[in-house]
Specification:
The protein is an alpha+beta fold. It is built from two helices and five strands, in the order ββαββαβ. It has a single domain, classed as Alpha-Beta Plaits. It binds iron/sulfur cluster (2 copies).
Protein backbone atom coordinates (compact mmCIF):
# COMPACT_ATOMS: atom_id res chain seq x y z
CA UNK A 1 0.00 0.00 0.00
CA UNK A 2 1.27 3.46 -0.87
CA UNK A 3 0.09 6.31 1.33
CA UNK A 4 0.19 9.94 0.26
CA UNK A 5 0.80 12.94 2.47
CA UNK A 6 0.33 16.43 1.00
CA UNK A 7 0.91 20.04 1.94
CA UNK A 8 -2.28 22.07 2.29
CA UNK A 9 -1.69 23.70 -1.11
CA UNK A 10 -1.07 20.27 -2.65
CA UNK A 11 2.28 21.47 -4.07
CA UNK A 12 4.30 18.95 -2.08
CA UNK A 13 3.36 15.28 -2.06
CA UNK A 14 5.26 12.64 -0.12
CA UNK A 15 4.43 9.01 -0.89
CA UNK A 16 5.50 6.20 1.39
CA UNK A 17 5.40 2.64 0.11
CA UNK A 18 4.47 0.45 3.05
CA UNK A 19 5.51 -2.69 1.22
CA UNK A 20 9.06 -1.31 1.36
CA UNK A 21 9.11 0.62 4.64
CA UNK A 22 10.70 -1.45 7.39
CA UNK A 23 10.58 1.21 10.10
CA UNK A 24 14.30 1.92 9.77
CA UNK A 25 13.55 5.48 10.93
CA UNK A 26 16.34 7.08 8.91
CA UNK A 27 13.80 9.55 7.57
CA UNK A 28 12.82 10.43 11.15
CA UNK A 29 16.49 11.08 11.99
CA UNK A 30 17.48 13.14 8.97
CA UNK A 31 14.52 15.40 8.30
CA UNK A 32 15.57 18.86 9.54
CA UNK A 33 11.98 19.91 10.22
CA UNK A 34 10.78 16.68 11.86
CA UNK A 35 8.13 15.75 9.32
CA UNK A 36 8.32 12.01 9.98
CA UNK A 37 7.37 9.81 12.88
CA UNK A 38 6.87 6.08 13.23
CA UNK A 39 3.39 4.75 13.86
CA UNK A 40 3.15 1.02 14.45
CA UNK A 41 6.55 0.56 12.84
CA UNK A 42 5.83 2.55 9.68
CA UNK A 43 6.77 6.09 8.72
CA UNK A 44 4.08 8.75 8.50
CA UNK A 45 4.57 12.35 7.38
CA UNK A 46 3.02 15.16 9.43
CA UNK A 47 2.73 18.92 8.78
CA UNK A 48 4.08 18.61 5.24
CA UNK A 49 3.65 22.41 4.92
CA UNK A 50 6.93 22.74 6.86
CA UNK A 51 8.91 20.70 4.30
CA UNK A 52 11.90 22.61 2.90
CA UNK A 53 12.29 20.20 -0.03
CA UNK A 54 15.84 19.19 0.91
CA UNK A 55 15.34 15.56 -0.25
CA UNK A 56 17.26 14.15 2.72
CA UNK A 57 14.42 11.75 3.48
CA UNK A 58 14.43 10.24 0.00
CA UNK A 59 18.21 9.85 0.06
CA UNK A 60 18.28 8.39 3.56
CA UNK A 61 15.77 5.60 3.15
CA UNK A 62 17.64 2.29 2.75
CA UNK A 63 14.60 0.73 1.07
CA UNK A 64 13.67 3.50 -1.40
CA UNK A 65 10.28 3.66 0.26
CA UNK A 66 9.88 7.44 -0.03
CA UNK A 67 8.87 9.33 -3.14
CA UNK A 68 8.83 13.14 -2.99
CA UNK A 69 7.30 15.39 -5.61
CA UNK A 70 10.29 17.77 -5.44
CA UNK A 71 13.11 15.23 -5.35
S1 LIG B 1 13.78 5.46 6.28
FE1 LIG B 1 12.46 4.37 4.80
S2 LIG B 1 12.19 2.32 5.70
FE2 LIG B 1 12.93 3.65 7.33
S3 LIG B 1 11.05 4.42 8.35
FE3 LIG B 1 11.63 5.93 6.78
S4 LIG B 1 10.42 5.32 4.98
FE4 LIG B 1 10.44 3.58 6.35
S1 LIG C 1 12.40 16.81 1.74
FE1 LIG C 1 13.66 17.38 3.53
S2 LIG C 1 12.32 18.68 4.75
FE2 LIG C 1 11.00 17.62 3.30
S3 LIG C 1 10.27 15.80 4.39
FE3 LIG C 1 12.12 15.20 3.27
S4 LIG C 1 13.82 15.48 4.72
FE4 LIG C 1 12.06 16.59 5.51
Amino acid sequence: MIKEFSSSSGDIVIKIDYEKCTGAAKCVEVCPVDIFELQEGKAVANHVDDCIECCACVESCPNNAIEHSSC
